């Protein structure tokens, strides 16, 4: 099985429970959800014309729509070849759950890596049992909520992007609807905006949620 990879890089996880953890990021191409404030819009469309060789994809110096095909074995070989040191691998996108992530996560876990996926909860989550699943539901998601119940029950953490009071109200409704009790809830201000950050801090204190501020954007790393 091949995975369409837009970016593969080593950095520090900047969001959620694993914030601060050295991590290898695999960013898959393709997402039909269309969040207006998405910070990775270059991953949305899968165009065959944008397929490039692994070398071209790896040597990109800016965000582009170009992607390359990799098997799980190709990913393992590359991670070794690059000399990456991190032992934690984050699969994001785009929407990674558009494909079966089991072969990739199983191969990585077999080599001693821990795995994590970042998903919106609009597609069935098909991955290994050990994989840490971060579900980031959005309001009015194109693609809908048909599988969100199973995503919410599989979630090891829920990370909700917020900019307005309405987002907080909608999150509370989702948590009640899906009877979420013990899963850690992270509130992530949308794009470092001051008002969103203040709102996120206040709602964390009021509800005993946790704050996730996309640390990488504050310190200027990938
Ligand atoms: C780019 S998405 C890719 C994975 C998946 N499609 C999802 O939405 O979870 C990764 C994370 O970034 C968050 N995110 C995207 N754009 C953001 C922005 N402008 N500000 C804050 N968080 C953002 C998403 O909510 C998600 O938690
Ligand atoms: N450093 C860093 N941490 C991240 N955590 C989630 C990210 C994502 O785009 O899914 C991300 C990212 O793009 N960079
Ligand atoms: S679901 Fe994720 S990748 Fe897709 S548009 Fe929304 S934030 Fe971006
Ligand atoms: Mg990001």
Automatic annotation (TrEMBL):
<feature type="binding site">
    <location>
        <begin position="12"/>
        <end position="14"/>
    </location>
    <ligand>
        <name>substrate</name>
    </ligand>
</feature>
<dbReference type="InterPro" id="IPR007197">
    <property type="entry name" value="rSAM"/>
</dbReference>
<feature type="binding site">
    <location>
        <position position="31"/>
    </location>
    <ligand>
        <name>[4Fe-4S] cluster</name>
    </ligand>
</feature>
<keyword id="KW-0460">Magnesium</keyword>
<keyword id="KW-0479">Metal-binding</keyword>
<feature type="domain" description="Radical SAM core">
    <location>
        <begin position="18"/>
        <end position="222"/>
    </location>
</feature>
<dbReference type="InterPro" id="IPR013785">
    <property type="entry name" value="Aldolase_TIM"/>
</dbReference>
<dbReference type="GO" id="GO:1904047">
    <property type="term" value="F:S-adenosyl-L-methionine binding"/>
</dbReference>
<feature type="binding site">
    <location>
        <position position="35"/>
    </location>
    <ligand>
        <name>[4Fe-4S] cluster</name>
    </ligand>
</feature>
<dbReference type="GO" id="GO:0008616">
    <property type="term" value="P:tRNA queuosine(34) biosynthetic process"/>
</dbReference>
<feature type="binding site">
    <location>
        <begin position="136"/>
        <end position="138"/>
    </location>
    <ligand>
        <name>S-adenosyl-L-methionine</name>
    </ligand>
</feature>
<dbReference type="InterPro" id="IPR024924">
    <property type="entry name" value="7-CO-7-deazaguanine_synth-like"/>
</dbReference>
<keyword id="KW-0004">4Fe-4S</keyword>
<feature type="binding site">
    <location>
        <position position="92"/>
    </location>
    <ligand>
        <name>substrate</name>
    </ligand>
</feature>
<protein>
    <recommendedName>
        <fullName>7-carboxy-7-deazaguanine synthase</fullName>
        <ecNumber>4.3.99.3</ecNumber>
    </recommendedName>
</protein>
<keyword id="KW-0411">Iron-sulfur</keyword>
<dbReference type="GO" id="GO:0000287">
    <property type="term" value="F:magnesium ion binding"/>
</dbReference>
<dbReference type="GO" id="GO:0016840">
    <property type="term" value="F:carbon-nitrogen lyase activity"/>
</dbReference>
<dbReference type="InterPro" id="IPR027609">
    <property type="entry name" value="rSAM_QueE_proteobac"/>
</dbReference>
<feature type="binding site">
    <location>
        <begin position="37"/>
        <end position="39"/>
    </location>
    <ligand>
        <name>S-adenosyl-L-methionine</name>
    </ligand>
</feature>
<dbReference type="InterPro" id="IPR058240">
    <property type="entry name" value="rSAM_sf"/>
</dbReference>
<dbReference type="GO" id="GO:0051539">
    <property type="term" value="F:4 iron, 4 sulfur cluster binding"/>
</dbReference>
<comment type="pathway">
    <text>Purine metabolism; 7-cyano-7-deazaguanine biosynthesis.</text>
</comment>
<comment type="function">
    <text>Catalyzes the complex heterocyclic radical-mediated conversion of 6-carboxy-5,6,7,8-tetrahydropterin (CPH4) to 7-carboxy-7-deazaguanine (CDG), a step common to the biosynthetic pathways of all 7-deazapurine-containing compounds.</text>
</comment>
<dbReference type="Pfam" id="PF04055">
    <property type="entry name" value="Radical_SAM"/>
</dbReference>
<feature type="binding site">
    <location>
        <position position="38"/>
    </location>
    <ligand>
        <name>[4Fe-4S] cluster</name>
    </ligand>
</feature>
<keyword id="KW-0949">S-adenosyl-L-methionine</keyword>
<feature type="binding site">
    <location>
        <position position="94"/>
    </location>
    <ligand>
        <name>S-adenosyl-L-methionine</name>
    </ligand>
</feature>
<feature type="binding site">
    <location>
        <position position="27"/>
    </location>
    <ligand>
        <name>substrate</name>
    </ligand>
</feature>
<keyword id="KW-0456">Lyase</keyword>
<feature type="binding site">
    <location>
        <position position="40"/>
    </location>
    <ligand>
        <name>Mg(2+)</name>
    </ligand>
</feature>
<comment type="subunit">
    <text>Homodimer.</text>
</comment>
<keyword id="KW-0671">Queuosine biosynthesis</keyword>
<comment type="similarity">
    <text>Belongs to the radical SAM superfamily. 7-carboxy-7-deazaguanine synthase family.</text>
</comment>
<keyword id="KW-0408">Iron</keyword>
């Amino acid at each position: 099985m091949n995975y369409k990879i837009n970016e593969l890089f080593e950095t520090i996880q900047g969001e959620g429970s694993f914030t601060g953890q050295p991590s290898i990021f695999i960013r898959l191409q393709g997402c039909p959800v269309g969040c207006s404030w998405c910070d990775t819009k270059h991953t949305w469309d899968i165009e065959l014309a944008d397929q490039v060789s692994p070398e071209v994809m790896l040597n990109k110096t800016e965000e582009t729509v170009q992607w390359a095909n990799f098997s799980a074995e190709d990913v393992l070989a590359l991670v070794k070849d690059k000399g990456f040191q991190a032992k934690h691998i984050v699969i994001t996108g785009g929407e990674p759950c558009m494909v079966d992530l089991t072969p990739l996560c199983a191969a990585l876990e077999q080599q001693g890596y821990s795995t994590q996926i970042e998903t919106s909860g609009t597609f069935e989550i098909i991955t290994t049992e050990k994989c840490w699943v971060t579900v980031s539901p959005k309001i009015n998601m194109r693609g809908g909520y048909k599988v969100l119940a199973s995503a919410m029950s599989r979630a090891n953490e829920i990370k909700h992007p917020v900019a307005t009071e309405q987002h907080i109200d909608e999150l509370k409704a989702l948590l009640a609807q899906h009877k979420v009790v013990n899963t850690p809830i992270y509130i992530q201000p949308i794009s470092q905006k001051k008002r969103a950050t203040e709102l996120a801090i206040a709602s964390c204190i009021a509800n005993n949620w946790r704050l996730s501020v996309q640390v990488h954007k504050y310190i200027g790393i990938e």
